[in-house]
């Protein structure tokens, strides 16, 4: 619905669709399936060690997930050249992409979407309860099947095992068995939804999918003779290589000069007086991969993101001028500070997703008709799942998730509404990745919870329902990275290399189960043996352990009725998003994109906006003065920026692990 022509507005496809269409689909080999599952096991163990033991870049909290793409780099840039030298059969592109699709599907489960958050969510209130915070009176609300019973087992998790103590492994089955089935069903259900949406996004709307373009180029059969020998690729890669190397050396040896790419210029130091202090937080961050993704995206989307972000910051200054905005942005449940950015986010996201589903209505009608046996078309033999299986899986998965929430203490209607809204937000996040190349999707507040609170949910939902509502976002919301299996990126790549997706989809599900179990137990071992969660990572094991009950107390204390300002802002932002969609559909000259407005309201835009500005401006300048020809010639340079960023990520993770260096990261703040 929102697609624009390639001449200066939409990126060049990663490969010729005409050439691809002539190549028959073929299944991914058994050795690739085996390799994918083995690498998923390795990823499960390595992710926790990297993220909170050596405190490196959080490789599972952005897209494409660093733990997945680094393994692809190893296979394409190290393993294949070694196999060539040994005169053995190399790993073909279809196999590489099949492996990578599986790794993308499981990557977040080893990080902040399951393994590392299960225990603090279910036990944090027990450990952090004190006579002063009053949590002991609320802990009986926690379902008994969520967490271990013995306080000493919980203490050892947060403080580590002392001399003479051992890990009581038997008690830690409870959180895994409580939350594991829920998250597995959530991911499988989204696989089914992605199977229903895939053709609408890839074939009908022909979305850009910027995040998949480098993996496709890098795994081409002749990549060594074409892509990797292109001078502009290595010129682009040289920039992040030099800058990250200097900054990494400076982290180890402070006398080495560095080139700041995080909060460059430190403009917040100059924003101390009213009304300019209302701009905070605002940073000039340079992420080279994000510059590349913005360049490869439909230009209107990244342009709209940073435009609406700066407009929002301008609204904060306006609010401060009239004393509507006492400080920086407020994203809390109870906050009603102008310009109510979370309310704008909820209205914009839900409306943007509704527009997206409306645009796909023709295909969805056909797919459901085929699933119900009402029509013979369209052909679904090359789909990840048959339409019947996808529809049944969506319905069964949604029902099971709703029943889980009900068993945990929510009313049936509230549980169903929670899961429905959560899936809508998940679709919105994946749309941002597929069309806008958004790779930092960190949000500060659950849109589902914010919506319930805004309509007065604190007055009509029982307190136990609120406990479940406040714990669920760590598994169904993008607090840290993209929630879900990143399946649409995987399906897009499988289509491009003409790989039959059914076997890969089954492997994704098997890999999810394997990764969840392995990553969970490796997390339990590492936390206990490296000093305890509270000492290892303040975000995962302190903030996440405390936040649900802090918010629960806030909900109980305010007992807030329906908030007119919040509801009105949600409705106005919804109408504005619909207006943007209408204008874009009816007027080719219209530049502002509804997805850009929805994305501009997430917390991570504080990190991303400047890189988006650089990438979209480069796209505009090259198309404006050189047309499509110059855009195509410059494209390898921007792919090189992405390549260099991720290569340095991998290199510095190895250096950090080898030297015992802590706290240096490429991505994040």
Quick structural summary:
With 669 residues, the protein is mainly α.
Oligomer: single chain
Overall shape: globular
Return the average pLDDT rounded to an integer.
Answer: 93
Strand arrangement in the largest pleated sheet: 1-2
Instruction: Determine the fraction of residues in helical runs and give it as a percent range.
Output: 55-70%
Order of helices and strands: HEHHHHHHHHHHHHHHHHHHHEHHHHHH
Describe this structure in words.
By secondary structure, this protein is mainly α. The chain has one domain. It is 64% helix and 1% strand. It contains 26 helices and 2 strands. The protein has helices spanning 17-21, 30-53, 66-85, 93-107, 118-128, 151-159, 173-204, 213-218, 231-252, 288-296, 300-321, 341-359, 361-371, 387-408, 412-436, 447-454, 457-460, 463-471, 473-476, 487-496, 501-529, 533-536, 538-558, 564-586, 594-599, 605-659; strands spanning 26-27, 499-500. A two-stranded parallel ribbon has the order 1-2. Helix 5 packs across helix 23 (538-558), helix 11 (300-321) crosses helix 26 (605-659) and helix 13 crosses helix 14 (387-408). The longest helix has 55 residues, at 605-659. It is globular, with a radius of gyration of 24 Å. The two termini are 35 Å apart. Residues 1-14 have low confidence and may be disordered.
């Amino acid at each position: 619905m929102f697609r624009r022509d390639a001449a200066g507005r939409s990126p060049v496809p990663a490969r010729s669709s005409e050439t691809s269409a002539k190549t028959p689909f073929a299944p991914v080999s058994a050795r690739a399936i085996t390799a994918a599952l083995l690498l998923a096991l390795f990823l499960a163990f390595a992710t926790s060690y990297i993220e909170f033991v050596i405190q490196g870049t959080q490789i599972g909290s952005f897209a494409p997930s660093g733990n997945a793409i680094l393994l692809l780099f190893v296979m394409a840039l190290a393993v294949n050249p070694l196999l060539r030298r040994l005169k053995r059969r190399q790993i073909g592109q279809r196999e590489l992409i099949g492996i990578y699709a599986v790794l993308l599907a499981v990557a977040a489960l080893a990080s902040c979407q399951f393994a590392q958050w299960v225990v603090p969510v279910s036990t944090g209130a027990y450990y952090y309860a004190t006579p002063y915070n009053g949590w002991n009176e609320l802990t009986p609300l926690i379902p008994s099947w969520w967490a271990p019973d013995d306080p000493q087992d919980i203490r050892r998790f947060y403080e580590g095992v002392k001399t003479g103590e051992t890990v009581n492994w038997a008690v830690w089955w409870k959180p895994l068995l409580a939350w594991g089935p829920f998250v597995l069903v959530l991911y499988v259900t989204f696989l089914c939804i992605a199977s229903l949406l895939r053709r609408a996004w890839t074939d009908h709307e022909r979305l850009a999918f910027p995040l998949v373009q480098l993996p496709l180029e890098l795994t081409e059969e002749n990549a060594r003779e074409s892509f990797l020998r292109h001078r502009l690729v290595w010129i682009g890669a040289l920039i992040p290589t030099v800058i990250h190397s200097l900054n990494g050396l400076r982290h180890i040896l402070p006398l080495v000069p560095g080139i700041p790419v995080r909060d460059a210029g430190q403009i917040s130091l100059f924003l101390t007086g009213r009304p300019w202090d209302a701009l905070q937080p605002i940073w000039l961050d340079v992420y080279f991969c994000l510059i590349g993704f913005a360049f490869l995206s439909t230009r209107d989307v990244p342009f709209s993101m940073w435009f609406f972000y700066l407009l929002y910051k301008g609204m904060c200054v306006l609010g401060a001028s009239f004393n509507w905005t006492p400080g920086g942005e407020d994203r809390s449940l109870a906050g009603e500070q102008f310009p109510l950015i979370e309310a704008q986010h909820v209205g914009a996201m839900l409306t943007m997703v509704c527009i997206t589903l409306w645009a796909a209505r023709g295909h969805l009608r056909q797919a459901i008709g085929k699933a119900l046996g009402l029509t013979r078309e369209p052909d679904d033999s090359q789909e990840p799942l048959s339409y019947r299986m996808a529809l049944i899986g969506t319905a069964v998965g949604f029902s099971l998730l709703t029943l889980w929430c009900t068993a945990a203490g929510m009313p049936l209607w509230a549980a169903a509404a929670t899961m429905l809204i959560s899936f809508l937000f998940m679709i919105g996040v994946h749309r941002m990745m597929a069309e806008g190349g958004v790779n930092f999707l960190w949000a500060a507040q659950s849109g589902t919870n914010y919506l319930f609170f805004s309509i007065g949910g604190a007055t009509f939902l029982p307190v136990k329902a609120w406990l479940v509502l406040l714990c669920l976002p760590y598994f169904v919301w993008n607090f840290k990275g993209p929630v879900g299996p990143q399946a649409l990126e995987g399906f897009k790549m499988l289509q491009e290399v003409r790989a039959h997706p059914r076997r890969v989809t089954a492997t994704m599900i098997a890999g999810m189960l394997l990764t969840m179990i392995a990553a969970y137990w490796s997390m339990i071992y590492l936390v206990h043996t490296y000093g305890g969660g509270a000492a290892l990572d303040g975000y995962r094991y302190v903030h996440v352990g405390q936040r649900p009950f802090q918010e629960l107390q806030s909900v109980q204390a305010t007992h807030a009725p329906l908030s007119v300002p919040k509801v009105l802002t949600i409705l106005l932002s919804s109408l504005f998003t619909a207006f943007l969609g209408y204008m874009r559909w009816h007027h080719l000259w219209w530049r502002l994109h509804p997805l850009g407005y929805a994305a501009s309201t997430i917390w991570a835009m504080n990190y991303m906006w400047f890189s988006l500005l650089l990438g979209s401006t480069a796209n505009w300048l090259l198309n404006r003065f050189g047309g499509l020809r110059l855009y195509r010639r410059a494209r390898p340079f921007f792919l090189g920026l992405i390549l260099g960023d991720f290569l340095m990520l991998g290199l510095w993770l190895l250096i950090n692990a080898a030297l015992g260096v802590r706290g240096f990261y490429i991505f994040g703040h």
